[in-house]
Amino acid sequence: MSATSNARSARPERSGERRDERTQHRHSPTRTEKTKVSDQGVSRLAREIAELKCRVETRAPYSQPILRTVTPFTPRVMSIPLPANFRSWQIKAYNGTTNPQDHLSKFYASMEAAAASDEVKCRCFLATLEGSACDWFNRLPKGTIDDWDTLAEKFLTHFAANRR
After folding, report:
1. 84-104 per-position pLDDT tens digit
2. Which DSSP letter does residue 28 get?
3. Helices 148-158 & 118-125 angle (0-180, nearest 10)
4. Is the pTM of this model over 0.70?
5. Least buried of 29, 73, 91, 94, by fewest C-beta within 10 Å?
């Protein structure tokens, strides 16, 4: 075969390849079609966002933070803010296995040194408990503690078996 015939036989393949490319090109989305598809997707997402916003806005607003702790304190005790820059003295945490009177005395002395009100004493007391003592505190019925004396009495009564 001559070089010319080889070149001729190669041409149809090339033109066939070109036809395939044109056919593929004809069936592939154009830039305009891609933009339309993209715009449709954006429009759909915008509608979904608007629907979700509408659902959220029609629900009752939260009056309390979602992760708020259930507290045994009355609203009156909880309404007293902790003083700015308030810092209590560091005392060893009570775990329910030692004398509760010792812990209460140390806690009370540290709160008095900080000039804390009874409400602040109530609100800070949990931070000095751990283990079974913390579990006891968390099981106190909601809204049943309105003052420091009540909390101290319940604490001493519950852990009375641990007194020396």
Report:
1. 877 767 889 999 999 999 999
2. S
3. 40
4. no
5. 29
